[in-house]
């Protein structure tokens, strides 16, 4: 895998992780969502007008474009496992921005993911 292809994959993964964090930020503004037949439209409108949610969806679209470019250059058996980097970035972002706990077990899982991605990238 060359540096350009790796860059498309990593940038797509980072945009996908950013999308998750933005969607979480948007839902924190909305609060817990409990849909009923009476409130689905009002809740949908409230969710759809949250700037973090709009930003998150935009990041998703951009990440898909980059992902398609990456898939045109590398085997899916190489590219798809690289998505696991998103778990690492999202966990760190959730800890930093939302104060979510990162336990020793989660930290160990992150290290395993990073080792796996490094091995995969070298293949």
UniProtKB/TrEMBL annotation:
Bilayer-spanning residue ranges: 43-71, 78-98, 104-121
The protein's name in its UniProt record: EamA family transporter
Gene3D superfamilies on file: 1.10.3730.20
Gene Ontology cellular-component annotations: plasma membrane
Keyword Membrane assigned: yes
Keywords attached to this entry: Cell inner membrane, Cell membrane, Lipid A biosynthesis, Lipid biosynthesis, Lipid metabolism, Lipopolysaccharide biosynthesis, Membrane, Transmembrane, Transmembrane helix
Entry keyword Transmembrane helix: yes
Annotated localization: Cell membrane
């Amino acid at each position: 895998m060359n540096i350009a292809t790796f860059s498309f994959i990593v940038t797509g993964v980072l945009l996908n992780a950013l999308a998750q964090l933005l969607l979480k930020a948007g839902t924190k503004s909305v609060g817990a969502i409990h849909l009923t037949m009476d409130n689905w439209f009002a809740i949908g409108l409230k969710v759809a007008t949250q700037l973090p949610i709009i930003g998150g969806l935009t990041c998703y679209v951009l990440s898909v474009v980059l992902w398609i470019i990456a898939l045109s250059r590398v085997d899916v058996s190489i590219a798809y496992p690289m998505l696991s980097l998103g778990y690492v970035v999202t966990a760190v972002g959730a800890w930093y921005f939302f104060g979510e706990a990162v336990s020793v077990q989660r930290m160990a899982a992150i290290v395993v993911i990073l080792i796996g991605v490094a091995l995969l990238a070298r293949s």
